[in-house]
Amino acid sequence: MELTYRTLERFGLNEKEIQVYLACLKQDITSPYQLSKITKIPRTTIYDILLNLSLKGLVQLEQSDGFTKQQTKVKANNPSVLRKILQDKRNYLVDLELDVVDILPSLKQDFHKEKANVNFKFYPGVEGLRKLYRDRSFDLIEAERYTWDLLMPMDMIGHEEINRIVDAQNEAYKLRKYPSKEIVSLNDWTKHVLSYQYGRNPLYIENREIRYIENPVFNLSVELNIVGNVIRIACANGEENWGLSMNSISLSSTLKSIFLLEWDRGTPVTKELVESWGPNEMIEYEKRRDK
């Protein structure tokens, strides 16, 4: 009985309508007076309920002719009508949905008013790259960080400056509540950068989760970072030098899902792995030079 009440309620009947409807089903032909006695609902209310049930197609009403004392007759329709009503509603809604799809472009054009709803900023040239890397606000966003790391060549913004940026990141990552995940393509260049920065400061490996993919098909031409809904892209490849910062829920969520698929395929970069490559030649040279 509980399922019956719950289902009829979802169909659109209120509690009193359900009581009256179930009472009608148990009678062949009945009357408002009899239904009032069975349900204990006042007869004045019964009339309103029966009218609603009739409009919904669940009962038939045969009114008095006005010359006799015969009351209104009430007869329930076959309960299968419930499903027929739902099928008719479904067909109506499908037809309505097709019409809504046709008018949506016009409605959305009025709603969006041709304005940009995604914030983005383009940084052209080498100087643009420098500005992008100098903007430390990106590192202060409290959210998980996902990076396809190109391990940018130092000649783009300078040897000392890129080391200052890495040092600042090392300190910032120690205080972060959320992990920083990076994926790199393993090749001679990335081995050099990883071993160089690890040689400068072991925190470079310890404060980050880095995984590598060793596959010639996997070749990064840009550095792509995602933190929260913010995306930052840096390109220093051949003749292309530019940066881009964008705030987009849709793009960031799409990129995160792709990143996490690749993350599962990656192999962790550990200090043992980096040390197995031997000492970094540039670190050794800098040590000799500084003596």
Automatic annotation (TrEMBL):
Transmembrane segments: none annotated. Gene3D superfamilies: Winged helix-like DNA-binding domain superfamily/Winged helix DNA-binding domain. Residues 8-75 form the Transcription regulator TrmB N-terminal domain. Pfam families: TrmB. It comes from the Bacteria. Coiled coil: none annotated. This is Transcriptional regulator, TrmB. It comes from candidate division WS6 bacterium GW2011_GWF2_39_15.
